[in-house]
Amino acid sequence: MSDLLPSAGSVYSFRTAPLSEFAPQVTDRYGALKVLGSNEHCVVITVLDSIWSKPPSLNDVRACGILRQHRFFHTGSPAVWGVNAEWWNLSDLDEMTPLGTISLSAEEVQLASKNLKQLQGSVFSTVCYANHAAEGEWRWANDRHALVAEQERVTAQQAAKRAAQEERQRTRLRGLTWEQLLEETPFERWSPSPPFPSEEFTREARIVVHDTCRALRALGSKPRKSDVRRLLRKCVEWFNKADEQAGGVIETEEREDICAVLEEMAYVARQKSLVDEIDNWRTW
After folding, report:
1. CB atoms within 10 A of CB 254
2. How far, in Å, CA of 71 to CA of 92, rounded?
3. Is the residue at 170 inside a domain?
4. How far is residue 47's CA from residue 61's CA, in Å, rounded to a whole number?
5. Can you tell me the mean pLDDT for 32-48?
6. Is the pLDDT of residue 1 over 70?
7. Is pLDDT above 60 for 115?
């Protein structure tokens, strides 16, 4: 199966996967997605509003429309989003199979144009989101009580992990030095790409972080707050520009990692109060 960018109207079936480790690990369900448009930067796709017990045929999906999302915080929004062209990967979904092509509706053409032009309200994610939408909406309609209970377990697990990470970070900050930061490789978990940013983005980000560390170290053991602010803000602004040029690759995990590094630099520079200002500087 080719990973070349698909044409508008292309339809694919896929086997849905469990939404978490707490869900039944075999779903025996199949969904379908439709490509609404693409260019060199983006592929716009939608999930169709049916679920099957076996792989659907092209005729099975002809009468399907756009899936409307109602689970948890959704209020009927269409399951339509753009995927970074570099992230278009047919292996992201289980048993993803091309079925053929179907003409687009007027609504689908409009939604494709909105996302391709990155107009206000357009949404961007990965191919994997098709599974979250299809399986999530089926569970919400047919197995809501169990889905909510599973999500509560996921939330509790994530909270416990964050608490443990915060405690490790507090312990680390107490003895952190410039030499240690310069010996380490920032953003080590940013591999592979996708889902993380490109190797070039990551490589340049590491250079910028280390250059900022050296500049801050050169300010001495008791630097002025204004000087530290200037250097940290310059670093943040680099990420702002780089993220924009890369098409918005800084998402939740990347944001957490960058903010953690900035916090560490502020602490080692003895200006930890500047951590509270970082959110005002960043655009990601």
Report:
1. 22
2. 22
3. no
4. 11
5. 95
6. no
7. yes
Mean model confidence pLDDT for the chain? 94
User: Strand pairing of 94-101 and 30-38?
Assistant: unpaired
- Laid out side by side, the sheet with 80-84 consists of 94-101, 10-15, 30-38, 42-47, 80-84, 124-125
Mean pLDDT value of segment 262-279: 94
Coil, strand or helix at 77: strand
| Residues 198/190, Cβ–Cβ less than 8 Å | no
The DSSP code sequence of 106-149 is HHHHHHHHHHHTT-TT--EE-TTHHHHHHHHHHHHHHSHHHHHH
Same domain for 252 and 181: yes
Q: How far apart are CA 158 and CA 161, in angstroms?
A: 5
101 to 35, 41, 65, 111, 258: CA distances (angstroms): 9, 21, 14, 18, 42
Residue 203 forms part of a structural domain: yes
Radius of gyration of the chain (CA): 22
Question: Sign of torsion, CA 5 7 8 13?
Answer: negative
Beta bridge partners of 36: none
- Host domain of residue 105: 10-143
